[in-house]
Amino acid sequence: MSTATSAQAYHNNLVGPVMRPGDLAQAVIEAARVDNPGKEIFVDDKRAYIRIHADQEMILRQATIEEELGRPFRMNDLEVDLSSFAGQIESRDDQIRFYFNKTL
Asked: pTM for this structure?
């Protein structure tokens, strides 16, 4: 496998939200770091949108986002600023999980 192909395969294993910039995106970045200890969180700020990714799986908890925002927050309110996402998604009332079942 060539270097370019290896790099692309690694990039394809990243999962997480793509969000509009703002307070919620910043809170999600911090929540991703808190809720996924030991994982490297990648943040790609494109000014018009922000990609927040981790390898294979990322969990975001409502309580952590509330703590980072400093106000109450409902998980379904994330959809307002969620432009897109990478991976599969599993949504619950108290958390959201981005993941892959298959590794490239």
From this structure: 0.86
Distances (CA, A) of 84 to 5, 50, 67: 24, 10, 24
* Per-residue pLDDT in tens (0 to 9) along the chain, 104 residues: 334 444 454 557 899 999 999 999 999 999 999 999 999 999 999 999 999 999 999 999 999 999 999 999 999 999 899 999 999 999 999 999 999 886 55
Rg (CA), the chain: 14
Q: Is-contact 81 22, C-beta < 8 A?
A: yes
Which pair of tokens denotes residue 30?
A: 């911090």
State how far the Cα of 52 lies from the Cα of 42, in Å rounded to an integer: 6
